[in-house]
Structure formats: structure tokens, C-alpha cells
Amino acid sequence: MLIANARMYAVNATVAEAWRALLEWVIARAGIECEVVDYPAPKPLAVLWARPDLGLVFMCGYPIAAARPPPRILAAPVPDPARYGGSPVYFTDIVVRADSPLQTLPDLFGRRFAFTTEDSQSGYQAPRRLLAPYARERGGALFAKTVGPLVTPRRVVEAVLSGEADAGPLDSYVHDLMRAHEPEVAAQLRVLASTGPAPIPALVASSAAPEDEAQRLVAALLDVAGAFELAPVRAALLLRGFATVDAEAYASLRADARDADAAGYPRLA
């Protein structure tokens, strides 16, 4: 029995139910034995991703590139909002409180910066790459304090809104789902800067998953975009559909991390 899980983008109970409905549809379409399981925060995602029975599980791109053996990449979501350009990409939004006096990235320096975990692309590695040129110019550390690991994007938002941190990184797809389903929370945030596009977290299976089952899951994921009965689910998830993604796209994230290392900024600081 394989397992499925969409915790990475289950921003609240309503969105979690939409993901469950979509995953169950994909599993039924593929005709395989796979169970949608709960894995709530703050349980470490690295433990989930290390399981040998992954069948349909969202995994962050930086760990995809680092995993040995690598997981089997099935397909990645294509968010529907215009900023994604119909591609399986996302961004990292650097967010502050809407009423914050901070206006530019240099305004953050000497302040407190939140992060999720060091193995997160959007929650750590992407902002590190974005900030590395500034660190090189300034000879090292940029912040008075880093706040974390906070584990989830939700906790980053809470830290920023509570004043525990002055700014933090937010996966753009999480951010857009919050805008759609929790506008009262999203309205309290403002985007100070955004990174360029990166390959979005993908649905993966473990390397030990049967090849024929993995291929049936891929086919079912690619059918999501045209399934009339999934229209309400796609709308709730701001989802156009899924696309296949080459492993090399995720390997580029490790190259970005090495660039930040070369700039003398091996850690957010």
C-alpha cells in the first residue's frame, strides 16, 4: 500500500479537503492501492519524505535534488494565477506586515528574519540566494537575528504578524491560497520583494514504487486539467492542472545554493 499526502499546500482545513478530494480522484483514476494519510505539522516533513512507500506525496524541490536515492518525480502543479504563466513554477515572496515601515530589501538589514527549515527551498534556500549579493557587499551577516526553524509557512506568517520577526519568506502558491481562502490574514501582509521563478514542489513516489503504478499516476495527474467533475476542486486550489518536470530542473536549485555559498553566505544570518 502506497501513501499520498498534500500537507505542503494544505494551508487550512478547507484547502486540505480539496487536496484530499483531488488525490483520491487521481488514485481512483490510476486504479492503484494508495491511501491518503494525514501528516500534520509540526511533524518533520523529512521523516515523511524518507518513507519507502511514497506514492503521491508533495516534496520540496531542494530535498528532491538532495535525496539519495532520488524520488520518482511524477508531476508538478501548475497554479492558475497569471503570475505563474501556465508553468509548474513558483516564487518566494518576502513578506512584512502591511503597516511595516520597511520598503526595500536593504531596509531589512539589522532586523529579524524568519525562516522555516534549512532544507526548504522557499523557506530558506531561495531567500539565501536572493540575499547573497547583499551579504557579499556587506561582508557577511545581514540580520540582527534569524527566527526559526519555524517549520511551516503558517508559522512564518504568524511570526511576522505578531512582531516576533520583521520579515520572512513565503511560498507564493501558499500565499495565493491564503489570499483566496483567508483574505483577512493575507491583507495584513505586504510583499517587499519576490525571487525569480523556480520549479515548484512536485508530487513524488519513492524510488521503490512499482514502475507501472507510477506511470498510471502520472497519466491520471495529467488528466486533472480536463476533468469536468474536478472543476470546483481546481477552483478551490487555484490549480490549472499538472505538468511533468525533468529532474534537472530541481538540480538547478542545488546550483543556486552553491552560488550563495560562493558569495560567502552559507547560512541566513
In short:
This protein is an alpha/beta fold and 269 residues long. Helices cover 41% and strands 21% of the residues.
Name some characteristics of this structure.
six-stranded mixed beta sheet; 13 strands; D-Maltodextrin-Binding Protein, domain 2; alpha/beta; 11 helices; three-stranded antiparallel beta sheet
Explained architecture:
The protein is an alpha/beta fold. The chain has 2 domains: 2-81 and 199-254, D-Maltodextrin-Binding Protein, domain 2, CATH 3.40.190.10; 89-197, D-Maltodextrin-Binding Protein, domain 2, CATH 3.40.190.10. It is 41% helix and 21% strand. It is built from 11 helices and 13 strands. The strands form 4 sheets. The chain has a 6-stranded mixed β-sheet. Helix 1 (13-30) crosses helix 9 and helix 5 (121-138) packs parallel to helix 11 (247-262). It is globular. The mean pLDDT is 97.
